[in-house]
Write a structure and sequence with these properties.
- The chain folds into two domains: 356 residues, Glycoside hydrolase, family 3, N-terminal domain (TIM Barrel, Alpha-Beta Barrel), CATH 3.20.20; 180 residues, Glycoside hydrolase family 3 C-terminal domain (Rossmann fold), CATH 3.40.50.1700.
- Strand 15, helix 19 and strand 16 form a beta-alpha-beta unit.
- It is globular.
- Helix 7 packs parallel to helix 8, helix 12 crosses helix 13 and helix 16 crosses helix 20.
- It is an alpha/beta fold and 597 residues long.
- The longest helix has 20 residues.
- 56% of the residues are buried.
- The protein has a six-stranded mixed sheet, with helices on both faces. Strands 4-3-2-1-11 form a five-stranded parallel sheet. It has a three-stranded parallel sheet with strand order 5-7-10.
- Bound molecules: alpha-D-glucopyranose.
- The site of alpha-D-glucopyranose has 8 residues, from loops.
- Alpha-D-glucopyranose binds next to loops.
Length: 597
């Protein structure tokens, strides 16, 4: 053979080998759009429908169904986890699932999705960051981006590719159980911090090992329902919806968010999951969102009509992946029939699958079919916890500080620490922590406020008595109370008053002339007008997560407080909803309020 031919042959072999060797993607060198079209052209209807199907891990009848039904995505709903809940157990599980996907004819990898909404909060001993309402109080977009970047590393370290975060709701009525999942009541703040979160999660290059898919949710106006009812109806004109609730999607899309989740809620009586106007005309066409749109958990089943109507209307409205979470065989069979009988045009199916494949290629999923184990060991690291501690510090809002009782002296002794949230990691983390609804006690690694105070003043200078009522022989009482964990509709309230037992305890200290420093751990402003005069200092700590040291950093003056209210603080339930800096009502504290020293 002539030398030149030999040379050309060897170059082509090397280049093929390079393509094969540097990725599981046989078309590694092609532009993504060409790869997508090439793959799509090979796909059967069954394979296309499988890509659009997302199943909850614990609803898999057999793990091999991932292969046999060509499933495109698996998720863990809140609290759904492998037996070994540490990062290694998660990574082993996802890698095993991926193995089934790679046994399919076309070897299209699955996306594994999870609600890592304040750290990778399903993984044992992962760092738990403040919930978004606390991040909103920091007003620090760069910090939010760093928090999200660490979250991405702790998600990727567990083998997971996709988090259903950030929630960019703009909660307008604090009776809503998901208020704490939003950054605040003003769209500009949500826009800025939502975009920062997307940048942190997805990184500058999506193919990076530390990048995961972000998900802007819940599209659109989830935070604007009547009376704050979860999954309720938004009764507003379109201009108001656009101004308050749609505008944060400009930031998220501008930051390159690759997935959006539709909202359970309705707008003027129409379920969002069936609205072609909002999902396709506005989100995909007007806002030029070119990623994939995923439904919420079993949300299509809330649509009117038969099972077939629900599938037809949600997919024709623009949903690309259906988060089932169960009965996937029935769904797949029904969807196939609906396409074959032209109720759902094949062009809509191809558009959905094209979006799904595009996002998978953008993520570099073919090069991520095994967990990057070097990240697994960083889950819950001290370095990550230091950033969470900074986030806690910057999230605290000092609402009252009479006679400059704060900061406390580190040489203080005879401190009474009291209250339900004083020594409870579960309570200081809130919902979406290890379990969907959160939990109580040492549910994961972290530092309670009690342990943090002990570290500052010494174990013999602080005494934790959960119910401090009638306790007298102390020079100071630090009272840590608030809301017990909840998630979603379980957190809907008609009354945000403090527990009467907590009110009685605070007033007993006043009677006994013991100064009170009140620390509130809650997913939203609470009604405190009946005890505000009984406290010398009041700090809103929101739901700080695992790093209680961030609270004592402020309490004992190592750092000055900088937090500002992300919500107007109502003085009574009758004032709710009350939003915006100039609302004219004599609220307890206005939006943006926060003391320092
Ligand atoms: C839930 C929530 C959504 C979450 C999804 C998966 O019902 O509405 O925020 O991402 O289901 O857990």
């Amino acid at each position: 053979m002539k030398p030149i031919l030999l040379l050309l042959l060897s170059i082509s072999l090397i280049s093929c080998a390079d393509k094969e060797s540097d990725s599981g993607d046989p078309d590694a060198g092609l532009p993504i759009s060409e790869k997508v079209n090439k793959l799509l052209a090979q796909m059967t209807l069954d394979e296309k429908i499988g890509q659009m199907t997302q199943v909850n891990k614990s609803n898999l009848l057999k793990e091999s169904d991932i292969r046999d039904y060509y499933l495109g995505s698996i998720l863990s709903g809140g609290g759904v986890a492998p037996p070994n809940r540490r990062a290694t157990g998660w990574a082993d599980m996802v890698d095993r699932f991926q193995g089934y996907a790679l046994q399919t004819r076309l070897k299209i990898p699955i996306l594994y999705g999870i609600d890592a909404v304040h750290g990778n909060n399903n993984v044992l001993d992962a760092v738990i960051f403040p919930h978004n309402i606390g991040l909103g109080a920091t007003r620090d977009a760069a910090l939010v981006e760093r928090v999200a970047k660490i979250t991405a590393e702790e998600v990727a370290g567990a083998g997971i590719h996709w988090t259903f975060a950030p929630c960019i709701a703009v909660p307008q009525d604090e009776r809503w159980g998901r208020t704490y999942e939003g950054f605040g009541e003003m769209p500009d703040l949500v826009n800025e911090l939502g975009a920062a979160s997307v940048r942190g999660l997805q990184g500058t290059t999506l193919t990076s090992k530390t990048s995961v898919l972000a998900c802007a949710k819940h599209f659109v106006a989830d935070g604007g329902t009547q009376n704050g009812k979860d999954q309720g109806d938004v009764i507003l004109d379109e201009e108001t919806i656009r101004t308050i609730h749609l505008s944060p999607y400009d930031g998220a899309i501008g930051a390159g968010v690759q997935t959006v989740m539709a909202s359970y809620s309705s707008i003027n009586g129409q379920k969002m999951h069936g609205s072609a106007y909002w999902l396709t005309s506005v989100l995909k066409n007007e806002k030029k969102f070119d990623g994939l749109l995923v439904s919420d958990w079993a949300a299509i089943r809330q649509l009117p009509g038969s099972n077939d109507d629900q599938i037809t209307n949600s997919i024709n409205a623009g949903l690309d992946i259906i988060m089932l979470p169960d009965n996937y065989k029935e769904f797949i069979s029904a969807l196939k029939n609906l396409v074959e009988t032209n109720k759902i045009p094949i062009t809509r199916i191809d558009d959905a699958v094209r979006r799904i494949l595009t996002v998978k290629y953008r993520l570099g999923l073919w090069e991520k079919t095994k967990t990057e184990r070097s990240l697994t060991g960083t889950v819950g690291s001290d370095a990550h916890r230091l950033v969470a501690r900074e986030a806690v510090r910057k999230s605290l809002v000092v609402l009252k500080n009479d006679n400059n009782i704060l900061p406390l002296s580190k040489s203080r002794s005879s401190i009474l620490l009291t209250g339900s949230h004083g020594d409870n990691i579960g309570y200081q983390s809130g919902g979406w922590t290890m379990e969907w609804q959160g939990g109580s006690g040492p549910i994961t690694k972290g530092t309670t406020v009690y342990k943090a105070i002990q570290k500052v003043v010494g174990e013999n200078s602080v005494y934790f008595i959960e119910d401090g009522t009638e306790v007298t022989a102390f020079q100071l009482a630090i009272v840590v109370i608030g809301e017990e964990p909840y998630a979603e509709g379980a957190g809907d309230r008609t009354d945000l008053s403090l527990k009467s037992s907590d009110v009685a305890m605070i007033k007993s200290f006043k009677t006994n002339k013991i100064p009170v420093v009140l620390i509130l751990m809650s997913g939203r402003p609470l009604i405190i007008s009946n005890i505000i005069d009984d406290c010398d200092a009041i700090i809103a700590a929101w739901l700080p997560g695992s790093e209680g040291d961030g609270v004592t950093d402020i309490l004992f003056g190592d750092y000055k407080p900088t937090g500002k209210l992300p919500h107007t603080w109502p003085a009574s339930m009758s004032q709710i909803p009350v939003n915006g800096p100039s609302n004219g009502i004599s609220v307890q504290f206005p939006y943006g309020y926060g003391l320092t020293w």
